Amino acid sequence: MAAGAARARAQARAGGAVKPRGGPSVCLYSQVLSKVDHVDLPMVLRGLGFDGCDLSVQPGGHVPPEKAGLYLMPALEALTGAGLDVPMITTALTGLDALAQEVLGLSGLIGVPFFRPGHWKLSGSPEVEHRLAQVQREIAGLASLGRATGMAMGIHNFAGEPEGASVSDINRLIRPLDPRWVGFDFDAGFASQGAPGAMNVALSLALPRLKMVSLRDFQWAASADGAAEGARKTTPCPLGEGVVEWAPLFAALARARFSGPISLQVDYQPKDELAAIRRDLQFVRKQMSAAYGAIGLARGSQRA
Prior knowledge:
Layout: H1 2-13, E1 26-29, H2 41-48, E2 52-57, H3 68-81, E3 85-91, H4 98-109, E4 114-116, H5 128-149, E5 152-156, H6 167-174, E6 182-187, H7 188-191, H8 198-206, E7 210-215, E8 217-222, E9 232-237, H9 246-255, E10 262-264, H10 273-294
Parallel strand pairs: 1-2, 1-10, 2-3, 3-4, 4-5, 5-6, 6-7, 7-10
Antiparallel strand pairs: 8-9
Helix pairs in contact: 1-3, 3-4, 4-5, 9-10
């Protein structure tokens, strides 16, 4: 079977996917380039100057999870063979099932150290405590699989839900679990969608269990007609043109000696997509150089 052949290839190359790095590996979330075939993805990422790839292994991604046995290992091998890191994959996994076992099993065999699961949403209904217990069991199950495959889970904070989205909500869910295998994929943009200084408070809570960092920015805009007076909505924008406080973020990461992957999200709609990605990457490089260089820490490689 194709899955068996993929496992055999992976076993021969296990542990070769991620190179030692003194600082964060700057990656592009591959879903940003959804129009680029997985065969061409490594060449495009190298041309843009990224250290690696946050590979989308989810419905509509470069590797659909139900086809992981056919496509995941070739995609990983193509990226690493081109000299790119694959320090993380992004999935929609929220439970311990056959798909989770195959996706994490194959990724773990080649040495991918981190994965981002899907989102667990908690309702605001009276049954929220029952739902909370259910979600904790599902997270614990995925964490157990992650431990078995050598992959740590970074849960992504997001925005727009009454419960279960924020860093504090996630922290409540994962507090009893082993921090070596369960932590945060800290999203600076979503964490900033609150009161002034909200991102700094959330980051201080996430840092002890920080696995990955996702980067996006946004601007506040007036809500559409009919919304409550004074209500605002978020509009995605290029990094550095919105409300996210980037210098404090990178300074905190440098002080914490954070060396996990940084994933560039690019969820706005630029006219020139590749030019916009290059600009955001240059912005990240500049922020990293200032923060990590200021305290004398080694940083990751910077491709031309």
